[in-house]
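Quick one: co-fold with nicotinic acid.
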Amino acid sequence: MSRYVDANLTMLTDFYELTMANGYFLERFADRVAYFDMFFRHIPEDGGFAIMAGVEQVIDYLQNLSFDEDDIAYLRGKGIFDDRFLDYLRSFRFCCDVWAVPEGTPIFPGEPILTVRGPVAQAQFVETMILLTVNHQSLIATKANRIVRAAQGRPVMEFGSRRAQGGDGAIFGARAAVIGGCAGTACTIADRQFGIPAMGTMAHSWVQMFDTELDAFRAYARIYPQNCVLLVDTYNVLKSGVPNAIRVFREELLPRGFRPAGIRIDSGDITYLSRKARKLLDDAGFADCGIVASNSLDEYIIRDILVQGANVDSFGVGERLITSRSEPVFGGVYKLAAVEQDGRIVPKIKISENVEKITTPGFKQVWRLYERESGKAIADVITLADETIGGGQPYELFDPEHTWKRKTITDFTARPLLTPVFRAGECVYQSPSVKEIAAYCRAQIDTLWEEVLRFENPHRYYVDLSRPLWTLKQHMMEQMQ
Ligand SMILES: Nc1ncnc2c1ncn2[C@@H]1O[C@H](COP(=O)(O)OP(=O)(O)OP(=O)(O)O)[C@@H](O)[C@H]1O
Ligand SMILES: O=P(O)(O)OC[C@H]1O[C@H](OP(=O)(O)OP(=O)(O)O)[C@H](O)[C@@H]1O
Ligand SMILES: O=C(O)c1cccnc1
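Sure, here it is.
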């Protein structure tokens, strides 16, 4: 089970999906085969890449689609749905094909990251949940990864449940955070469900509950000698918190053969306090005692305090991660790309004044091309689904907007990113564990050039169209003029 409540989320859909489905049904259109693509247009915070996440929960949702009698009665009560349509919903069985880019893969604007093919009434209907699931988790995985990269190898713990936007925000946010590189989470249920390590320290209330800070530290050290991290900022970090921690480490841990795990600083100037605390700990013979920092951190503050010379070994990050506070929207959209007519795929396009918003028509595949020698990713190429790239053949890349910019590459490998997930409604994909996804994500990010990784003005990674696809799109745009 990958949902925290065993609820059927079939009715979690925008109402227009239902009115359209009813309409398709009445127009005898419901079984016409359509292709929908999910893609996004903008990388949060103008970053160089985003991270795909949420596929496992999309699978879970699609496998559990069904309307029960209460749903049907509710819809009947609306007074706008045809009885025959309601009967059709009663026997609804998801029978579409779905392809998705595997979770943990770096993704780029404009490329399909998930495609659904099937009867339009169904393929249209699943839009809302697919978008909300992938938008949420990709947003948080992308944000978490920025924070993790800012920490430069120091572990980052996800502390955000209490400030998440609801239960799903906390649980799937924790899942996505670990995909993006967090070492663990404070979210216990996420550990139970996804096997991602739950960890934590203590709250200020623990310290306040005792007559003195010293008593609070002593009690904690006695109960948890093997993993003793003491919160040192309830009263005064340097005058009482750290000295009391040192005393307790000496009196409670050393005699029992334990070493301290750490102290946590949760307020004030982290750079100043961590440096002073480090010196006190070192002078007391606890050079191995880690310093955890928390308090409304994000990638910018972490980067700043490290540049300032903070002495921090790990970070706890909550609200700004779990809500992706600096940019809380991952604007993935779901657009019709083609229909089938008389056994042929007929591409569809959506025209806009804004060139970026013109959709790319047809049933497509996305190929990632890697330089053979360095293993680095060169570009992604969106092709029609029946095209193949690789097999030792040179390939000409060209910029879809400035077509005179061309380059022929020879020594490369190519892999298709869109992977079959459902065939005719049957799941054909085994989701990896979150740990495996996180490891894959790390390895994939290593294939990106430094220039794409940086926070400020990263290079735009190439997402090109194949010649047949570019020609098709051009032709359709001209026809629509
Ligand atoms: N050296 C630093 N450079 C930049 N930002 C820092 C530094 N130290 C802490 N911060 C950040 O400054 C922000 C504000 O901290 P603020 O002054 O509100 O304090 P506080 O110490 O939490 O106050 P309180 O004692 O009320 O909890 C936090 O987001 C914190 O992460
Ligand atoms: O600041 P964030 O990035 O969201 O990290 C999580 C915060 O949650 C806790 O504070 P809170 O005041 O809720 O509880 P506490 O009494 O345990 O400090 C913790 O001490 C952190 O400050
Ligand atoms: O374990 C912690 O230190 C923790 C957990 C949640 C929020 N803040 C801190």
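If it helps, The chain has two domains: 15-140+328-480, 201-310.
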